[in-house]
Design brief:
Elements: E1 9-15, E2 19-28, H1 33-46, E3 52-63, H2 65-81, E4 84-88, H3 92-101, H4 104-108, H5 124-127
Parallel strand pairs: 2-3, 3-4
Antiparallel strand pairs: 1-2
Helix pairs in contact: 1-2
């Protein structure tokens, strides 16, 4: 039996002062998805003044559940950093996956303003969070 190696994921990163564009070519799957997560995380860490992270998706052939998980993780990390995530030039199969899972708006929503930090370093917004099941206290 001949074993066929997984399709590689190739990334090309282009950056300016306030924007990073990561072009992804290949399969965003279980075998390769961590490459994109590592690159996006490194770019966010290296550029504290970053405003926009563009993931250019036209070269993606396939995205599996691990690939979707990585996109969601990148979405969380960009939100935490106050960076707007863009999923540019999405192929039809990626749009279908994001539509079926209800994650497109979640991944591409506007980034809320960063909350000010208290003197102790805790986020004051967390202390005021409702506790009831219907959003009441």
């Amino acid at each position: 039996m001949t074993s066929i190696p997984p399709d590689d994921l190739r990334l090309i990163t282009v950056d300016t002062q306030n924007t990073v564009r990561i072009e992804a070519h290949g399969d965003l799957d279980y075998d390769n998805a961590d490459l994109l997560l590592d690159e996006a995380t490194a770019q966010l860490a290296a550029r504290p003044g970053l405003k926009d992270l563009h993931l250019h998706c036209a070269g993606l052939r396939m995205v599996d559940s691990m690939g979707l998980s990585v996109l969601l993780m990148i979405g969380r990390r960009t939100t935490e950093a106050g960076v707007r995530l863009h999923l540019d030039d999405r192929p039809a199969q990626l749009d279908r996956l994001l539509d079926l899972t209800g994650t497109l708006d979640h991944l591409t929503a506007s980034v809320p303003a960063r909350a000010p930090q208290s003197a102790a370093g805790e986020d004051d917004v967390l202390a005021a969070r409702p506790t009831g099941p219907d959003g009441t206290t």
